[in-house]
């Protein structure tokens, strides 16, 4: 909403009650989102259980592109729109969203470095004795620890964004806010869970937290739709801040946690060579492109 005159924006009126058709559509959409999220989260598990390493590698590359574009194309513009809204009544010319995202990316890296340092200091994964362990075994355990850390940061970033997507979908009277992101995001999360080597129970718990987040937001949005004011200071500031933080986490995770380990030798994965390297690059671009295309309607 940058460049919009303050007098043209209604900062005090709620959207008001939605009509019956819109309400029915959103209620049905809640279940569609639930199914799409679950399907995306389960695809990576199927590739692992059916021993399809090439398929999983290509899925990882596609998921990395999805996460990167989600941060740049979907989350960050939403955050900028919220924090540049004149209803906040403070400077809307400064790029607050981009600044917060940059700080969030650096702080995410700092948190990961700190956790890795703790692991190396003695709290090593799976009780590994570093001093009496072969270097190659320690490298594998270190890669496992890094993959676990990355899966948690990725889930945090997606959940931050998903809750606001759900609230906006449930509360808004504009049907155009329907966003088919959850299936792709579920695929990205599932790939990170497989890379971390989660057993079925932990995989289900982590995936369940993501699967339920957006529908929970939709339910909250439906409940407050009659009084929800998306242009209130509280709504704009909270949405903008959390989406900015989410964008920083997602961009960092896509580049450092997903793409770099996938294409770099010595990161716990076998080096990609020949056609598989080229195809993985194409899949990463395809994931990015898919989310960019969705942004036309979302």
UniProtKB/TrEMBL annotation:
InterPro entries tied to this protein: ZIP
Transmembrane segments: 28-46, 55-76, 96-119, 149-171, 177-196, 203-224, 244-263, 275-297
Highest taxon in the source lineage: Eukaryota
Main location: membrane
Location of the protein in the cell: Membrane
Membrane topology: Multi-pass membrane protein
The keyword Iron-sulfur appears for this protein: no
Pfam families named among the record's database cross-references: Zip
Keywords annotated in UniProt: Membrane, Transmembrane, Transmembrane helix
Protein name: Zinc/iron permease
Species assigned in the record: Coccomyxa subellipsoidea
Upper lineage: Eukaryota, Viridiplantae, Chlorophyta, core chlorophytes, Trebouxiophyceae
